Amino acid sequence: MKPAGWRRVVRLPLALLPAEADLPILRGPARGCRWIVGSAPHGAWLGSLERDKLARFAAALQSGATVWDVGANVGLFTLPAALGVGPAGRVVAFEPFPANLDFLDRHVALNGLSNVTVVRAAVGAEDGWLTMSEGSSPSEFHADPTGAWRLPTVGLDAWRSASSAEAPAVVKIDVEGAEAEVLAGGAATFAEFHPTLFLALHSEMAREACGSYLSDWGYRISSLDHEPPERSVEWLAEYDPPHR
Question: Mean of the per-residue pLDDT values for the chain?
């Protein structure tokens, strides 16, 4: 049997799992957390989905810190963030899509994560409203002027001021092309507090715009996907203070 055939055979039992079943995550920084099977590809609970990025993300977390998960989807990064910062820390998960929010809420409740706050909005350059589309999967929910969904947006600086929230130590941003708008809306926070940033970038335009912001704020950019930063779709941005 060819390798592809073996993979199909191995995957057959996974197809029999009820979508509503919740199983323990088998590997990675959220190991042991309960996960709803139908909320994401099976790699989420098997521990293979975004494995390397999750490991780097978890390594940046410290007990008692604040983490912002911008574009939280169903909680793949929210859960390990909540474990990593512990009861004294705080995770704020920003997500606009109702179907994703349902799973995100259930994952938070299933695991008793009292240190997670869910903000039910997209993140952009400013507070307002945004028209969005689902894309080919819930993980590809994105801004689209012809979309069927009109949902609220928040700018991170305005939201932090209104909520009196702690500044973050780590921020993950995965927003299907609106990364530069997220940085613009949080410019004061990023320029003053310099949290470590994990960015998923979805276009050359986004790389250029985000790179310009990060350079102005004193960040050093490295790649998380074994490509040079100018071609990478996954960035790690860390503050590089001026040397005196």
Answer: 90
CA pair distance 85, 204, nearest whole angstrom: 33
Please count the CA atoms within 13 angstroms of the CA of 143 that sit on its side-chain side.
Answer: 20
Q: Taking a C-beta distance cutoff of 8 angstroms, is the pair 37, 17 a contact?
A: yes
For residue 204, the one-letter residue type is E
Can you give the chain as a three-state secondary structure string? CCHHHHHHHHHHHHHCCCCCCEEECCCCCCCCCEEEHHHCCCHHHHCCCCHHHHHHHHHCCCCCCEEEEECCCCCCCHHHHHHHHCCCCEEEEECCCHHHHHHHHHHHHHCCCCCEEEECCEEECCCEEEEEECCCCHHHCEECCCCCEEEEEEEHHHHHHHHCCCCCCEEEECCCCCHHHHHHHCHHHHHHHCCEEEEECCCHHHHHHHHHHHHHCCEEEEECCCCCCCCCCEEEEEECCCCC
pTM: 0.90
pLDDT in tens, 103-126: 999 999 999 999 999 999 999 999
Q: Strands 66-70 and 90-94: what pairing? A: parallel
Q: How far apart are CA 67 and CA 53, in angstroms?
A: 16
Q: Are 152 and 95 in contact (CB under 8 A)?
A: no
Confidence band of 200 (pLDDT split at 50, 70, 90): very high
Strand partners for 36 = 22
Q: Are 91 and 67 in contact (CB under 8 A)?
A: yes
**What does the alpha-carbon distance between residue 116 and residue 104 come to, in Å, rounded to a whole number?**
10
Amino acid identity, position 226 = H
Instruction: Give the count of alpha carbons within 13 A of 183, CB side only.
Output: 28
